[in-house]
Amino acid sequence: MALAVPVLAAASPAYRTGTAAVVAPADAGDRYVPALARNGWNSVAVTEPAHHPDDNTGYLRHVTHRTSLRRTAAHLDRLGVQAVLAGSPAGTELADLLAARLHLPGNALDTADIRRDAGLTSAALLDAGITAPRSIRTARLANALEWATYTQTAELVLQHPDPTHPSSVCRTEDDIRSAWHRLHDSSTQPLVLREHLAGTHYRIHTLTGPGRDGSTDHSITAIWSETRTADQQVCRADLLSRRGLLARALALYMVRTLTALGVRYGPAHTTVAFTPDRGPALLSLRTAPYSDFAADTPRQATGHDPIRDTALLLTTGRRPEARRQVRAHVTKIALLPWRNGVLDQALLRTITTLPTVAATTALTAHTPVRARQITGWLLLVADDSRAINQDLQVIRSAETLGLYGRPA
Fold this sequence. Notes:
Layout: E1 18-23, H1 32-37, E2 41-47, E3 61-64, H2 69-78, E4 81-86, H3 92-101, H4 112-115, H5 118-127, E5 135-138, H6 141-151, E6 156-159, E7 167-170, H7 173-183, E8 191-195, E9 200-210, E10 216-228, E11 234-239, H8 245-260, E12 266-275, E13 279-286, H9 296-302, H10 306-316, E14 329-335, E15 341-342, H11 345-352, E16 357-360, E17 368-369, E18 376-382, H12 385-401
Parallel strand pairs: 1-2, 1-4, 2-3
Antiparallel strand pairs: 5-8, 6-7, 6-8, 9-10, 9-12, 10-11, 11-14, 12-13, 14-18, 15-17, 16-18
């Protein structure tokens, strides 16, 4: 299986003013518009015919892509587009193709399919001598069951090749069969069955672009240590210092992995498992934009913001200056009901006004909640970890006392 090798990166445009195309913009992707505008750049939205964009999002123009790459690229060329960005996971493939067609900075085309397929990603990394989960990618349940029997692994994960889809932890053949029938939507659609790595999971954010010597340079901008439930839902994430042996091991692994997978330009966010006997192993990779809730607070803590950092790199060729983290401890906490109910007004007010709670997602009293589905997130920030742990105890006590009210 072909893998990308280190190459000289295309130079950043670094124009005083310019125009960028944002492909399939949605949610985080729309944040590119004001970020680029702050640096004197316009934005053009590239959308599919079925998508009807909001005219109030600030785009200079909307270009509809109708299957012809040549025509879409020609249209963008006439508009003077000098950079192409994916505006969502759905836009990564077309963004890679358009950047290559227009001879603009972008990720390697020869590994594009590998980057977007969890099964191909693992196989490619293993072929390159880089740690990754053992897996099988197949459209046949019989093959998956045979492989599970052969590997004799206690826990496996069945998932769609696209890492944006849900996955299921399987411990028995019956679990695999049940998850297969739930996830398999066509006779030709492959699924990926991989070993479940029980180590700590880390969400790692990176920014890639040309280095001073012209080679591709990968920067680690944030590392979050994730705590997961038994069914693999993230219920807590703690910002990890980028100093120390663990952070260094994760950074070195990411440089090798991103280089091998042909990531050459822009943001990426990955999930990596770390086990003592095998070290880091990539579980998922996305090169679409990522925007956390209450982005200003994590930016104050880390000095980085994926959207703003990408816009700065694209428009000026510069990266944000690395600086010391001004807040020592940042934690995200999920509200995860164990039963159906509604949010209690008094207890909701109690937890959202705690001293370390810096921001929350939209949380409204009396809103219905569903069992085992995340209701929202709280962002806790403090100079002392003990303050966060104290407020976390209050949050968990509020859940026990009736935060989710009476059963609906």
